[in-house]
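Quick question, first post here. What does this chain look like in 3D?
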Amino acid sequence: MPEWEGVFPEGGAARTLRISDEAMVYFFHRAGQYYRVESHVIYELEITTPHGVTEVERFTSAEALAERERALHDQLRGAGWDGPHGRTT
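> Answer (accepted):
Ran it through. Tokens below.
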């Protein structure tokens, strides 16, 4: 069963969905469109754009993955996206 967590890494307020011990899912939204972001323990970042295009970025360490996630969050927020938000569907 998925488990909701109320705090995002680095202390930011958020809702993330732990879908397993190996993955977290959260969303950014703007004007009815969403970016879906999955963080995998196997050091992968899966990003799905509002147009349904999915990209997978692979990293060699947890630190590199976390750094890329922070940069992505900053990039999306800077472009006017609101998030991260967790979702079950």
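The chain has a mean pLDDT of 77.
Residues 23-60+81-89 form one domain.
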